[in-house]
């Protein structure tokens, strides 16, 4: 089974084979919905793919198809700001060596993990990548994750293959899950000659974001050059930048600073996303304070994935300083993480434990980190439950954020671009047990 040509509840067949849905979404009204920051129950009317009205229950007759929320929470849909979609479900073929290196002690062997994990690219097959990616995106749709920034390796081993696969999946899941495809220089740019040109080729193919990982270069000068090249390409193609930064247990790593400085120089405010930044946990206080001020000035957001490694960004302090922070899935059963299912409630649940954020207001912040804050981090316009905004929503099985995180169950219903997602079909395609 694949998602193309599925009949969506409401009687509208969507032409995913063509990659474009030209039909107008039918009207939909969500009845007796509970909102996060409003005491009364409401009816939410959706028309032309957008939120048309949010009124107290019974204010006006339902328009079009009706969906009962049964007094459960209705919120913005989930957003995953960091996923290596080109490697999902490859752990069984790679083995545990990279996993052990990445998660050992203070992450001092993270570089070795990356070098071991490159082996997976030598035997990757496009059809197998498509099948695995399709399964991961069906999981995302089932769990209400409608937007993903997805990375694909670009280097002498992978070439442009991963980006080509992700672009095919982007087209296949139009109207269900929006993919931002990142052309990602996983093995470096300076130490991998020819990668800069491959990145440009990927942008010509249609990749949306330029991705880098400067800390794995051999010298600080090369790290700075890596950052500069990524921004050169981003400016050339008017694209956002995503970089995996300082992803090891080394307090001397400073590539987050390099990225923020370059974003300031290029006036790329709000268009640079910093992933991981795990070494931040080891920085001395005076340097960390200066770095936070730099991030704020440059408008750099941070995505943390605390469940995939023993170090993580200093999330609470970043939030206190007004830095936009999101949580990402990062990996799904690959050389760096054994689990994962594109369930962002599960990611936030794990974050509550690993970040020690369990008080009521902190749970609300965690929920933002996989919905509204995550949307801002990857440049989504108006990813909020408000009139006029695109109708990307989830109807949960719980009445509070705390209960939603406690059980991290699949939503009762998922609305993507104003349409109900066929969750039964998505569950079957993803092989998620009932």
Concise description?
With 434 residues, the chain is α/β, with parallel strands linked by helices.
What oligomeric assembly is this protein in? single chain
Strand content: 15-25%
**How many individual helices?**
15
What gross morphology would you assign? globular
Structural class: alpha/beta
Rg over C-alpha atoms, rounded to the nearest angstrom: 21 Å
CATH topology of the largest domain: TIM Barrel
The percentage helix is 25-40%
Strand elements, count: 18
The description of the largest β-sheet is: 8 strands, parallel
The poorly predicted ranges are 4-20
Round the mean pLDDT to the nearest integer and report it: 93
Biggest sheet strand line-up: 8-9-10-11-12-13-14-15
The total domain count is 2
CATH class of the largest domain: Alpha Beta
Distance between the termini: 17 Å
CATH architecture of the largest domain: Alpha-Beta Barrel
Give me the CATH superfamily of the largest domain: Metal-dependent hydrolases
């Amino acid at each position: 089974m694949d998602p193309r040509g599925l009949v969506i509840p409401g009687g509208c067949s969507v032409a995913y084979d063509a990659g474009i849905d030209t039909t107008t979404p039918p009207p939909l009204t969500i009845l007796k919905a509970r909102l996060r920051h409003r005491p009364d129950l409401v009816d939410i009317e959706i028309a032309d793919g957008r939120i048309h009205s949010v009124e107290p229950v019974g204010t006006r007759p339902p328009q079009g198809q009706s969906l009962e929320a049964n007094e459960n929470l209705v919120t913005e849909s989930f957003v995953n700001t960091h996923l290596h979609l080109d490697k999902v479900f490859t752990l069984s073929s790679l083995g545990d060596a990279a996993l052990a290196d990445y998660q050992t002690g203070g992450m001092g062997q993270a570089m070795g993990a990356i070098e071991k994990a490159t082996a997976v690219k030598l035997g990757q097959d496009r059809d197998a990548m498509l099948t695995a990616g399709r399964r991961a995106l069906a999981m995302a749709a089932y769990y209400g994750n409608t937007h993903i920034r997805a990375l694909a390796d670009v280097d002498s081993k992978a070439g442009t293959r991963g980006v080509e696969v992700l672009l095919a999946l982007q087209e296949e899941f139009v109207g269900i899950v929006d993919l931002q495809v990142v052309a990602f220089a996983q093995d470096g740019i300076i130490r991998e000659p020819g990668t800069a040109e491959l990145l440009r080729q990927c942008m010509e193919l249609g990749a949306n974001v330029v991705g880098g990982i400067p800390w794995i270069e051999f010298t600080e000068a090369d790290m700075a050059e890596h950052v500069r090249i990524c921004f050169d390409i981003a400016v050339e193609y008017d694209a956002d930048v995503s970089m995996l930064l300082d992803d090891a247990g080394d307090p001397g790593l400073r590539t987050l600073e390099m990225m923020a400085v370059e974003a300031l120089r290029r006036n790329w405010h709000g268009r640079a996303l910093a992933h991981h930044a795990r070494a931040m946990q080891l920085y001395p206080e005076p340097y960390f304070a200066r770095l936070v001020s730099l991030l704020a000035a440059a408008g750099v957001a941070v995505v943390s994935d605390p469940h995939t490694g023993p170090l993580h960004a200093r999330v609470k302090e970043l939030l206190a300083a007004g830095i936009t922070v999101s949580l990402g899935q990062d990996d799904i059963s690959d050389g760096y993480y054994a689990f994962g299912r594109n369930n962002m409630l599960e990611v936030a649940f794990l974050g509550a434990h690993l970040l020690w954020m369990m008080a009521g207001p902190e749970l609300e912040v965690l929920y933002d980190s996989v919905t509204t804050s995550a949307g801002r981090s990857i440049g989504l316009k108006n990813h909020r439950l408000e009139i006029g905004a695109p109708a990307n929503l989830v109807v949960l099985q719980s009445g509070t954020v705390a209960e939603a995180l406690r059980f991290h169950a699949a939503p009762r219903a998922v609305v993507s671009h104003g349409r109900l997602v066929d969750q039964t079909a998505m569950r079957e395609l993803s092989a998620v047990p009932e």
